[in-house]
Design a protein that fits this description.
single chain; about 260 residues; alpha+beta; FAD/NAD(P)-binding domain; 4-stranded antiparallel beta sheet; 5 helices; about 15% helix; about 30% strand; elongated
């Protein structure tokens, strides 16, 4: 990696499987500028799983299956950590390691962009056109910013007109949301539209909004969001829709159908 380029993102590969090995080889030839690559493995020698059947059949020796990850990391300019990864701490942007201090990730958010530490959020997010969003949105996943531990127990129904949420209906959780935005300037504006791309983001957590098959809107601020949001607000509250269908109106193409990739 070119050390003269400022670190803007962290990319962490957990495990030394053959997919990550190919990433390391490609990275050594063409590293991404501004990205710090880190590899976390529980043992420095990886086993190429595609050759295991041949090993069992006596066609290969054990050493022929093994890949030493350390020199690959050195050639790619990647940090190399030998420790078992036991979990993620999204709120603190850390990878939890067994027997070692947590691995701290570097967040970066430039003006005019909405970005998060890799690989924690994995969402494709855009500033909504502040006076355009209309229709009905039903939050049945997580509703952030109102003190819930997981997904909503009763769906929260948003009525959207002219880019604003003009009605919030549902049970006790809907009432919490109404109280949270009551009297807050510009908090009814639909500030963000986004969909998830991760197969691993856990449901029932803030990371759910990055899960494949989900779409979310946010009430409130978007003035730092791509591609140039205009709404200033002290709140930014995400509401997630599960098993979503997402269609591009201009050409009729589907991105999602009932929570499944359609591209």
């Amino acid at each position: 990696m070119n050390s003269s380029v400022a670190i803007r993102h962290d990319l962490v590969l957990v495990g030394g499987g053959h997919t990550h090995i190919q990433v390391l080889r490609a990275w050594a030839m063409d590293p991404a500028p501004g990205v710090r690559l880190t590899v976390v493995v529980d043992r420095p020698v990886a086993v190429y799983s595609g050759m295991v059947p041949g090993f069992v059949a006596g066609q290969y020796r054990q050493d022929e299956l093994e890949i030493d990850v350390r020199p690959l990391c050195m050639r790619a300019g990647a940090r190399f950590i030998v420790a078992a990864a036991t979990g993620l701490d999204p709120s603190q942007r850390r990878v939890i390691l067994e027997g070692r201090p947590p691995l701290e990730l570097t967040p970066y958010k430039a003006r005019g962009q909405m970005m998060s530490p890799i690989p924690l959020w994995t969402e494709v997010a855009f500033a909504a056109i502040e006076d355009f969003t209309h229709g009905t949105a039903v939050v049945d996943g997580v509703m952030l910013g109102i003190g819930l531990e997981g997904q909503v127990k009763e769906p929260i129904r948003w009525t959207l007109e002219g880019g604003k949420c003009v009605a919030i209906e549902g049970g006790e959780e809907a009432e919490r949301l109404r109280k949270a935005i009551d009297g807050v300037e510009n908090a009814t504006v639909i500030g963000e539209f986004a969909f998830g791309t991760s197969e691993k983001a856990p449901f029932g957590t803030p990371s759910e909004k990055g899960r494949i098959g989900t779409v979310h809107l946010a009430l409130g601020d978007n003035h730092n969001a791509y591609p140039g949001g205009q709404n200033h607000c002290s709140l930014h509250l995400d509401g997630v829709f599960l098993n979503a269908t997402l269609q591009i109106v201009d050409d009729g193409a589907y991105i999602l159908r009932e929570g499944e990739w359609a591209l």
